[in-house]
Amino acid sequence: MLLQDSVTWFKKNNKLERLWLLAKIEFKLRYYENRLGLFWALLKPILDICIYYLVFQIILKQDIPAFASYLFIGLIFYNFFIESTSGTISLLHTKKYLYEYSNMNKLEIYISTLMSNVIGFSFNLIMFMLFYNLIEPESMGLSFYNFWIIPVFVNIFILALGVSLILSNIFIYAKDITQIWQVIATLLLFTSPIFYKLTSFKQALPTFDHLNPIAGIIINARRVMMQGVSPDFSLMLFDYGYACSFLIIGLILLNKIGSKAAEKL
Fold it and tell me: What is the pTM of this model?
């Protein structure tokens, strides 16, 4: 009965339709002034991969099988998390008009912003699958285990939402959180197994795959998409634990601090 009432309420208020509309507008506006337009959403990660491939495979000679694909999937997950969190730090300020002059609540604004990043992520994941399965000579092909990418992605979406809520509420009182987060983002980039062989990463940073949720999510994404095996459920449990914990903290901050955002900003 409760589930039926919730579905009816969602349909009556057109929540999903409104969130999807806002997400599409946000995604288009992001690339509106670029000459390449929406094509830039696909081109940028490819250019990133070319640069990192040149540095880590050709110059530093990382001995990793299917390194281009290994790099590709690591970067699209990392970029989704960083773009989602960095792009929402000042959200309560830049989109104040939405929660002040419409019936949208603040959480819906966060979700719609992250959904716009999901569109770009989906394009990049499709590009990865085409590259890995049609071009990569060391490809293992499609597998039933590929479907595990859905809970792996849900994991990083919840994590990004939770961290976004925390950062944007801190921004109300401390604007320099933007610069601090840029430093942390760089730290996460080089303390995740994006460029390095997993065995080397674990030897250099023991247990860090469990301490860094981004590392765990990337490891599981590669397992299900490139190795044709199920995710490491112990690692996934840790990562979901981190994600849910950050989300709960973020929701508490949104309720306590975010309610005063309009008058503070």
Answer: 0.85
